[in-house]
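Tokenised fold entry reproduced for absentees:

. . .
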Amino acid sequence: MIRISQCKSLREVSGLETSLKLEHLVIGGTALDQQALLSLKLPPGLQVCSLYTNKEREDRLIHAALAARGYRVHANS
């Protein structure tokens, strides 16, 4: 599990796609915007993904997009 939370100046995340054993990812409370979160290259073994902006409307869109990709999505974890 990787959890990145309340890192207000974090603007970029890279290398996740190489984390082959990563099954659970939580990222929220960062400077990443909705498009940046949705464009993250995610590892093939990822099952549960919670990406959030702390903006309810944007979070719903992000969670819907992740669910459509087959990830189990949790609200603000």
DSSP finds two helices and three strands in the chain.
